[in-house]
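Quiz preparation item.
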């Protein structure tokens, strides 16, 4: 079965791009982007912690909801930095077939 995440991320990315120029008083996405990269990063970090806690507690519904929040805030942070999910996918593809331990060691030089 093919995962739906690619389509969901494509749609999310398009909505974020479209809202970049919206009025920050009416669009949360526009507000985050107008506040800059550091604010976007802070919000993504907060969501990462909430996602990790939901995972540690084993609450599937909460973990799914927090994961959606995390992916949204990651997409906003990527947009703020001019990076696409395609670039992230390319990085993942480069790492495919490489042990995680070996890949991490290659970055620690």
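Solution:
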């Amino acid at each position: 079965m093919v995962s739906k995440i690619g389509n969901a991320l494509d749609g999310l990315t398009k909505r974020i791009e479209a809202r970049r120029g919206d009025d920050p008083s009416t669009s949360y996405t526009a507000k985050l982007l107008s506040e800059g990269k550091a604010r976007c990063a802070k919000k993504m970090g907060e969501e990462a912690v909430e996602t990790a806690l939901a995972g540690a507690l084993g609450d599937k519904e909460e973990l799914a909801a927090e994961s959606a929040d995390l992916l949204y805030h990651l997409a906003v942070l990527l947009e703020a930095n001019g990076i696409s999910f395609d670039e992230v996918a390319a990085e993942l593809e480069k790492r495919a077939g490489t042990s995680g331990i070996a890949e991490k060691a290659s970055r620690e030089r």
